[in-house]
Write a structure and sequence with these properties.
Largest sheet: 5 strands, antiparallel
Shape: globular
CATH topology of the largest domain: Beta-Lactamase
Structural class: alpha+beta
Order of helices and strands: EEHHHHHHEEHHHHHEEHEH
Radius of gyration: 21 Å
Number of helices: 13
CATH class of the largest domain: Alpha Beta
Number of domains: 2
Strand content: 5-15%
Length: about 300
């Protein structure tokens, strides 16, 4: 199955071409633009807002960034125009994503430093080929490439098997992993340990909202928190103090009458200097037992 991202936010379009097992992106999509609500304000308030978002005092940030608290105060109040180097230093210590680092530079009157290269472009061919190898060689176990909002960008054959459980209204394009997993008509109906798995997904979504300050992700969080499955799950877990009984939480699914038990790993690029790469992540699922491994091999025919 082939998927590629195409439009602007957490509801961006994804084009799916063919049914053969492939993870290759074959066309250059138009730019994806995640806009941040912080963009229209000046650089000083932006820095202050990110500092507040990370719950750091002026003194804390000034110390780690190697500037005086007085100078940082002048930057935040607009009395001093920061150099691009200082802005990038502050952004690094505030763990600001690359996309929003460009916003900081633009707000201060500087040119953006970080490009956004489309995954389908010739420049990205080595990266795209690497991603395709990772996903295709992971069959018969599910593997997907996700964007910043956890929309599926690329997928292998085993992942498309799970996508077949999702009704048309949730299948996009794009397939959003949070919606598909938490909606009562989606994978929630096939997840035996939904309460535990939903809590894991909600924690991941909350972390993304905190890291990116992206209003589109915040809106997605509000949406899924209103799903009856999620509301019921939160109510059921209230007051529970169960001790963990396993080393890692697994996703327990029933697919075509087969019980599957899968653990998940998340992989990102270690040192991205491009916005597209900074916002991509690979999720690979692995069987926790021999029965799941055998069932996936049989279900996928691989």
């Amino acid at each position: 199955m082939l998927c590629r991202s195409e439009v602007t936010d957490c509801d961006q379009a994804v084009v799916r071409i063919g049914t053969e097992t492939t993870s290759e992106v074959v066309a250059v999509p138009p730019p994806r633009i995640y806009r941040c609500e912080m963009a229209p304000v000046g650089v000083g308030p932006l820095v202050k807002r990110w500092r507040g978002h990370r719950r750091l005092s002026q003194l804390d940030l000034a110390n780690v960034a190697g500037v005086s608290p007085k100078h940082l105060s002048f930057v935040e109040t607009g009395r001093s125009r920061p150099s691009p180097e200082l802005l990038l230093t502050l952004a690094r210590h505030l763990e600001v994503p690359l996309r929003e680092r460009n916003d900081l530079l633009l707000a201060a009157g500087y040119a953006p430093r970080f490009d956004e290269t489309e995954l389908g472009s010739p420049t990205m061919a080595p990266v795209r080929d690497t991603l395709a190898v990772l996903l295709d060689r992971h069959d018969p176990y599910p593997g997907v490439l996700l964007d910043r909002c956890w929309n599926v960008v690329m997928a292998n054959k085993a992942a498309s098997l799970l996508a077949g459980l999702i009704p048309a209204e949730l299948a996009g394009p794009p397939i959003n992993l949070f919606r598909a997993s938490l909606h009562p008509d989606g994978l929630a109906a096939h997840t035996r340990n939904f309460d535990d798995w939903a809590l894991y997904l909600l924690d991941q979504l909350r972390r993304l909202v905190n890291v990116t300050a992206d209003p589109a992700l915040a809106e997605l969080e509000r949406e899924v928190l209103a799903y009856p499955t999620v509301v019921g799950s939160i109510a059921d877990r209230r007051g529970r103090t169960d001790a963990p009984s396993a080393l890692v939480l697994s996703c327990e699914l029933t697919v075509e009458g087969r019980d599957l038990s899968l653990l998940t790993t998340l992989t990102t690029f270690g040192s991205p200097l491009d916005i597209t790469l900074d916002e991509l992540m690979i999720e690979l699922f692995y069987p926790t037992d021999d029965a799941t491994a055998s069932a996936l091999a049989e279900l996928t025919g691989l």
